[in-house]
């Protein structure tokens, strides 16, 4: 039995070493110019200068921060942590778990970026309404005021060019604003389109309507910020509960209990690890659903 156990441990160690080599090879492939042919073809088709005939040198590829920002996100830390734990615990299971966590963390990061972009668009709409109201009140014509306001409050994305073109060449400004309002966070442009249509068709005061719209949008933004501040405690509690198992493993290691060997190399440990991971994922999902439901109210 001791010989069989020793053989199993040697096989697990070889698998872990192979997984480490595979991850390092993937890193070299990503940094070594995986997209080089595509980049060179795009430059040639666009009429740009011809670049070097080979992939970038290793020092430049490693030191260029733009390459890291473009290809790597914080989610890859899960794979790195899994690799470290796999080498420490002589098991391939942490590598598999870390690789499975990469797409989940990527989705979380992209959702956070989408939320930040939505908030930036909402702030840009509020700034546009405020600047436009001031320009109209100063005596400018609505079209010229919108052009100046759009230049001073950039941040509406690609649809801003359509709004500027409609205002400059006498196009359908309310239609362009309604089209721009389809972007997440820019829904307030629907109110601006309504104010514009009423002011043009019925001769009503555009500045007064913009002031009321600006006040409503600011109140809505302040309400969202207040709700987010109230939910900060719940978010912190969920993060703390998620980190507690890691702290338990560190405490057990400090006491000399070797919890990684028990969890990764015994049947009872694997069962506890699986059950704990399932309960952990279910708890995080439920806590996230509660917080999102409160934000949506």
From TrEMBL:
Keywords assigned: Cell membrane, Membrane, Transmembrane, Transmembrane helix
Q: Does the keyword Cell membrane apply?
A: yes
Q: Which residues cross the membrane?
A: 12-31, 43-61, 81-105, 238-257, 263-287
Q: How does it sit in the membrane?
A: Multi-pass membrane protein
Pfam families xrefs: T2SSF
Its localization reads: Cell membrane
Highest taxon of source: Bacteria
Domain Type II secretion system protein GspF per the UniProt entry, residue ranges: 129-250
Give yes or no: UniProt keyword Membrane: yes
Q: Which PANTHER family match?
A: CONSERVED TRANSMEMBRANE PROTEIN-RELATED, INTEGRAL MEMBRANE PROTEIN-RELATED
Output this protein's name: Type II secretion system F family protein
Q: Which organism is it from?
A: Streptomyces lavenduligriseus
Organism lineage string: Bacteria, Bacillati, Actinomycetota, Actinomycetes, Kitasatosporales
